Amino acid sequence: MLAVEDLLLLPNPIHSRKPRRLLFVPTTLAKLVTAPEINFLFNDSPLENLLWTRLMDLGIPSERQYEVVVGPARPKLDIAVFCKECSSVWNATATRCTCGAVPWRRTSAAATSCRAWGGT
After folding, report:
1. 52, 77 Cβ separation under 8 angstroms
2. Running DSSP on this structure, what letter comes out for residue 53?
3. How far lies 46's CA from each of 23, 78, 87, 107, 114, in Å?
4. Which of 10, 12, 19, 43 has the least C-beta neighbours within 10 A?
C-alpha cells in the first residue's frame, strides 16, 4: 500500500541556471532539502555524480540532464558542458567551439587545461 501525505513547501525554491522543464528528478531527501540549484538534485549514478561534482569544483560550466535539439529528436545529455566564451553546448568531437574558442591545450603528457572554460 502506498500512502502520500500533504505536500510541504521547501524553505527556499530550487532554481535552474538554464531554462528547462523537468517532470521527474531522481533524488534523495537529503539532496532535496540542501540543493542550492537543480543540478544538485540529480541522483542518477555514482559516476555521473562524481563527474559533475568535479566539473563544478573546476568551475567548468555544465548542466545535468540537458535537452538538445538534433533535427526532430530532443535527446537529453547526461552532462552537458558549455563553452565559457559563448555558452554553446560543447561537441566532444570538435577541435574548436562554434565561436572559435579552442578547448584543449596540452601542458604535459598527464595534464590538459581548457582555455574555453577559463583554464590556463
Report:
1. no
2. H
3. 22, 12, 27, 29, 25
4. 19
Give me 56's grid cell: 563544478
pLDDT digits (tens, 9 = 90+) for 24-43: 888 888 988 888 888 888 88
Residue scoring higher pLDDT (112 or 44): 44
Measured CA distances, 113 to 12, 60, 119 (Å): 36, 11, 5
Q: What one-character DSSP code corresponds to residue 63?
A: E
Q: Does the pLDDT value for residue 60 go beyond 80?
A: yes
Q: How confident is the model at residue 74 (pLDDT cuts 50, 70, 90)?
A: confident
> What are the two backbone dihedrals, phi and then psi, of residue 74, each rounded to the nearest 5 degrees?
-135, 65
Decide if 26 contacts 52 (C-beta within 8 A).
no
Phi, psi of 76 (to 5 degrees): -105, 130
Instruction: Please check whether residue 101 is in contact with residue 61, taking contact to mean a CB–CB distance below 8 angstroms.
Output: no
Identify whether the C-beta of residue 44 lies closer than 8 Å to the C-beta of residue 27. Answer: no
